[in-house]
Design goal:
Order of helices and strands: EEEHEHEEEHHHEHEHHEHEHEE
Largest sheet: 7 strands, mixed
Distance between the termini: 41 Å
Shape: globular
Bound molecules: cobalt (II) ion
Number of strands: 13
Helix content: 25-40%
CATH superfamily of the largest domain: PurM-like C-terminal domain
Number of domains: 2
Structural class: alpha+beta
Radius of gyration: 19 Å
CATH class of the largest domain: Alpha Beta
Number of helices: 10
């Protein structure tokens, strides 16, 4: 497919990233992104917060500041009480308020299946855009939220998740990546993305594909929601995790001592996951310490950029 081009389009369809970026002047560019999905938790107010946090995240992942948003709503008005929609939108609004983002409009349609999300516009300096490229050999990778939300959500749907796991994962998904993005601003960060539907390995693969470096992951260092191990071992693995594996397994070398449940979690699709930050190795420890000071307790160095195997991911114990 051929897409229209424009000299001011810095990140567009040719180099798909977390969001599109269009330069307005030498000092300012706009970031645009859209995300919406069906409910992943039962509580409508929390679902609204999670959908908003997830949509805003792509702006943070590019190093930008979200400014305006529009609601996207699909609602089964004949079968569902309108008060549910009000709660969803209130959740979204409260999250936007927390993020200092103003709602400027939106659009709703009648649909058999409820869906909610945002289209978001943010600002960034054109020289400071973080994409999935520009990684340097020796860099360290930092993940800011634990993995396993897809597996926990599968357990929730099956009525098997514990109350603690539900509460933890709900708050985790509703947490903005804003603080993490603010902290990384002061560090020599080369690349960044957020972990969502393709899972950790899928998003790492986007960084490494067609590159002249490899990425090593240290699986024991990767933050994981404790219950996700138990549920993965029970087979509560979402279909998306198998799709993610099928798509990328040719790029992945796995050490035989890595457990199957861990691998399932590395491919597990995340909702509103954390930032994956690629930073100069000498600064990685300080960056993690600063993230922890900001309350991002699970932040951890989870791997490194290697000179080989080129274009591959190596999963170590
Ligand atoms: Co993203
Ligand atoms: Co997105
Ligand atoms: Co990015």
């Amino acid at each position: 497919m051929e897409f229209p081009t424009d000299p001011n389009l810095i990140v567009g369809m040719d180099n798909v990233d977390d969001a599109g970026v269009y330069k307005i002047t030498d000092d300012i560019a706009i970031i645009q992104t859209v995300d919406f999905f069906t409910p992943i938790v039962d509580d409508p107010y929390w679902f609204g917060q999670i959908a908003a946090a997830n949509a805003l995240s792509d702006v943070y992942a590019m190093g930008g500041i979200p400014k305006t948003a529009m609601n996207i709503v699909a609602f089964p008005i004949k079968e569902m009480d309108i008060s549910i929609l009000r709660k969803i939108i209130q959740g979204g609004l409260d999250k936007m308020k927390e993020a200092d983002v103003v709602l400027v409009g939106g659009h709703s349609v009648e649909d058999k299946e409820l869906k909610y999300g945002l289209s978001v516009t943010g600002f960034i300096h054109p020289d400071r855009i973080l994409t999935k490229k520009n990684l340097k050999i020796g860099d360290r990778l930092i993940l800011t939220k634990p993995l396993g939300t897809g597996i926990i959500n599968t357990a929730i749907k099956g009525g098997l998740a514990s109350r603690e796991a539900i509460e933890f994962v709900t708050r985790l998904m509703a947490t903005l990546n804003r603080d993490a993005a603010q902290v990384m601003e002061g560090f020599p960060v080369h690349a960044c993305t957020d972990i969502t539907g393709f899972g950790l390995i899928g998003h790492v693969a986007e960084m490494v594909v067609d590159s002249d470096f490899g990425i090593g992951l240290w699986s024991e260092k990767i933050p994981i929601i404790p219950e996700a191990f138990d549920y993965a071992a029970m087979g509560l693995v979402p279909a998306g995790a198998y799709k993610n594996r099928e798509f990328r397994e040719g790029m992945v070398d796995i050490s035989p001592s890595v457990k199957q449940a861990v691998l399932d979690i590395l491919y597990d699709p995340q909702t509103s996951g954390g930032l994956l930050i690629c930073v100069e190795s000498e600064s990685a420890g300080d960056l993690v310490n600063e993230l922890k000071k900001k309350g991002i307790d699970d932040a951890a160095i989870i791997g490194e950029v290697l000179s080989k195997p080129k274009g591959k991911i190596v999963v170590n114990p």
